[in-house]
Specification:
Blueprint lengths: L1 H24 L15 E4 L7 H12 L4 E8 L5 E5 L7 E7 L6 H19 L3 E7 L1 H11 L8 E8 L18 H5 L5 H8 L9 E8 L16 H4 L11 E7 L12 H12 L5
Parallel strand pairs: 1-4, 1-5, 2-4, 5-6, 6-7, 7-8
Antiparallel strand pairs: 2-3
Helix pairs in contact: 3-4
């Protein structure tokens, strides 16, 4: 019969058409698309940090529908960047940045951040980002903004640093029990920290900054406030770098606002949300 003659041809055509549809429907990043309104937020961990440093914060924010984690960026000890994930249609994508060498110098972390930014623009056509850095992640983020790298890659709209010691760490015995290149940079009056202040004129005049400090020992003005590791005055050192009118600081007086516990507090979630996304209806 006639239908038996044409059935294999029709079936073959249907399979080819289905295969073509699946290939063209598969999400990819090789074709840059217009993402002028997309502003991913990069979360950068601190000294000795890792996947758990910002994981629970991002989980809480996702549960509240403030955004969604779409990408993880791994940087090897040799600086090789591996990106997992991609950008779907979303109002507010999160990117988690992980350094294999989590004890690296500010210089190295700055260089790695610049390579991440280059990849985001070249491979995904990202035009602007926000940065959230905990402790040394905040130092590296600021140093990146003080470098020449940020001019040719995604523009940083807003930066939030959490417990970042811009005047170093003064806790007694801390450097006797920790090691790595970072410990040189984290000392008070280190060359890396002094260089950041000396380069303050290079800080962009259009980046809004929020610094968050934890205070676990009460609000007595006669007491040196700290989070158990970093003094609030060290966090405030960022004000000497950021241009006038672009800096805002919040101090959380809470026994749970420890150096490693700050990014586990819902109060900090709310501060970051209001700073980064309040004007975007998130």
């Amino acid at each position: 019969m006639l239908w038996k003659k044409w059935a294999p041809i029709l079936m073959g055509s249907l399979l080819i058409g289905l295969l073509f549809f699946m290939i063209n429907s598969r999400p990819g990043s090789s074709e840059p698309v217009d993402r002028e309104d997309l502003v991913p937020t990069l979360f950068v961990h601190g000294f000795k940090g890792g996947p758990r440093s910002f994981e629970t914060m991002m989980d809480r924010m996702q549960n509240l529908q403030w955004g969604q984690k779409h990408m993880t960026v791994y940087v090897s000890s040799r600086g090789h960047v591996t990106i997992r994930g991609g950008f779907a249609e979303t109002h507010n994508p999160f990117i988690q940045v992980l350094f294999e060498n989590n004890r690296a110098s500010i210089y190295n972390q700055t260089h790695w951040l610049s390579e991440i930014m280059r990849r985001l623009k070249a491979d995904y056509n990202i035009q602007q980002v926000n940065l959230v850095g905990h402790s040394m992640g905040g130092l590296a983020s600021v140093n990146y903004l003080l470098s020449e790298h940020h001019y040719s890659v995604p523009r940083v709209e807003k930066l939030s640093v959490i417990a970042s010691p811009f005047k170093g760490i003064e806790k007694e015995g801390y450097f006797a029990s920790n090691y790595g290149e970072a410990t040189t940079d984290l000392r008070p009056k280190s060359e890396a920290l002094k260089q950041m202040v000396q380069n303050k004129d290079q800080f962009p005049n259009d980046v809004e900054v929020l610094a968050i400090a934890g205070v676990i020992n009460g609000d007595d003005p006669e007491t040196e406030h700290w989070d158990g590791l970093v003094h609030a005055s060290s966090v405030s050192g960022l004000e000497a770098i950021v241009p006038f009118g672009q800096y805002e600081e919040k101090r959380l007086y809470n026994p749970l606002a420890t150096h490693s516990g700050l990014h586990e507090l819902e109060e900090v979630d709310q501060l970051i949300k209001e700073f980064l996304w309040a004007d975007k209806g998130k």
